[in-house]
Amino acid sequence: MNRALLPLSRGNEVVVRAIEESDLLSAMCRIIVEVGYRMAWVGVPQQDTARTVTPVAWAGEVGQYLEKAHISWADEPRGHGPAGRAVRSGEPQICQDFSTDPSMAPWIEDAKKHRIASSAVLPLKNESSVFSILSIYSADTNAFDADELNLLRELASVLSFGIRALRDHSEREAFETRWRTSLEATVGAIAATVEKRDPYTAGHQHRVAKLAVAIARELQLSENAIQGIYLASLIHDVGKIVVPTDVLNKPGRLSELEFQLIKTHVQAGYEIVKNVAFPWPIGEIVLQHHERLDGSGYPRGLRSEAILVEAKIMAVADVVDAMMSRRPYRAALGLDAALEEIANGSGKLYHPSAVASCISLFRQKGFHFD
Amino acid sequence: MNRALLPLSRGNEVVVRAIEESDLLSAMCRIIVEVGYRMAWVGVPQQDTARTVTPVAWAGEVGQYLEKAHISWADEPRGHGPAGRAVRSGEPQICQDFSTDPSMAPWIEDAKKHRIASSAVLPLKNESSVFSILSIYSADTNAFDADELNLLRELASVLSFGIRALRDHSEREAFETRWRTSLEATVGAIAATVEKRDPYTAGHQHRVAKLAVAIARELQLSENAIQGIYLASLIHDVGKIVVPTDVLNKPGRLSELEFQLIKTHVQAGYEIVKNVAFPWPIGEIVLQHHERLDGSGYPRGLRSEAILVEAKIMAVADVVDAMMSRRPYRAALGLDAALEEIANGSGKLYHPSAVASCISLFRQKGFHFD
Fold first, then answer.
1. CATH code for B2-171?
2. Does A122 touch chain B (CB under 8 A)?
3. Angstrom distance (rounded) from CA B107 to CA B70
4. CB within 8 Å: A12 and B164
5. For the whole prediction, is pTM greater than 0.90?
6. Which of A349, B54, B73, B240 has the smallest count of CB within 10 Å of its CB?
7. How far B158 CA sits from the closest chain A CA (Å)?
């Protein structure tokens, strides 16, 4: 019983526990050698013009046999042995007696020297190709009867599955990282587009991001929500691209029409980012950052319960930085005036906990813009 | 031998071949019942407040037992049975005789009715949690000796690995898709930012994209390279954001200084997109699209061999669309003039095969802008 069950059971165990592909391959070769074979190795068929089959793991009395074997899967004598045929056909190749197999000619002398008499080569496949071969040598001729071959096929199948699973796992992580990185880079690129045209807005967006994140952290929002607030803040005024520079930078008081024009920036910002499938409601936050609790904000006059907490936090940070900054039409109003504004509007215009956190950040916790 | 080997071997087979998680779970339950158990089922511990353990697959004489069992992992009588304990502890729970186990009180009557006398519940785990349980019932008391339990543990381990592998595989695909989609959406968002400010550039970018892709296809570039040309074309003039509208739209002849200002758009475009890790050289293509074969282009005066083929193709499409369009400082010059320009510059300024393909597209193949 052990002869058949133990290798399979141990094969499963190494596959289930594997973390590194190379360790998995070596462990599987060792299991096969422990079954009673002379040696086992795994080779990777290279896609370059030489078409060599490169050994990447092995176990048993490999000696210098493998080193000298120069196995290939090209159309040449060393590519017509069992390994080359397994790569090209995708089917197992059994050679029960090297001494009577003409395709073994390139290796027969070395095989005798290393007491190898027969072999089974099993392709390891994914949906589209043979990505490796598992090659098993016996000291005996006719070593591979039907039961034996079934066991080896099953080990190869489990190994092949394990390799694919390890690769899927690491590619899953890599693609998730690439996706998240690309979303951050997207925000960076959009912010850079604005920055090129309007350095004031760029600096403002970075300061709002810093303050909004600090407030969100005080309010103990999740790290994921904080990341959303950070990215939304970095581009919250991107829609100002639609407002003519003359109006944006007008030194005097804005006409009603000019103010209407400025107000369009939240909708324009929403439209710029709405088609990026962020895992945070970036577009909504941008759209809502001028809404006020009592419904007096724009563009939709939403009331408190309809406004995202992220937008409420950003509104506070936005007002504070805007008041602390010099604008074309006025001097900077200073920290005291900014904090007085949000304190006066707390509960009416601005989210009370965000206001309280913001004041505490500046007054007690040493928060400052760089 | 079969009693131990066959289930394991069949378990491996269903895991290796599985495409859908639900099919895999059902198949594994059937294998366990075929070993000789009365029934087997897989349950998912829900994370909501009710903390039920929801059956998702089963096999054997399940009858109405499962339906009435209402198993949970909450702190209540139905959460203190073997299943609830397995979820909370992450360890297998064996109950060799229901009739002597007080924790089985909620189920004992129904268990008798369905001739169930003992059970083994095996947790299916990933790195961080128990995502399912595998529950196995026997008609006999003391059905689970050490060998039997080893077999079941191994089946559970293989099943658990198979589920994780299936999930990794589908998440790998999902994240790759999300990543690719987000890159396209990034280009869309950058293009939208420009479009909001400058509708002429937006239309121009779309037309250049259409023509450049058609030329690239004629030249038999890979689909991947064509995708890169498409996306680069859609934002190739994004750097014009740095050029004041007054200069961009100046009706008269540009001064040397104004022309220098316009030329900065390629570098500005490069800087906007350079931090997005596109799998195509989008930034380089944007940077090079005003280079000319003889080194007379800008910004770096590169010669033919140093210019990306994508940029050479885009240069041809860009010149043709610019000449065919009305500009603030001149009327549209028309198709004939545009094709004459690239024909005259072929080999000196413009990539000869791209020129030939472009002319053939318009003259023989009915290409037109919408």
1. 3.30.450.40
2. no
3. 9
4. no
5. no
6. B54
7. 7
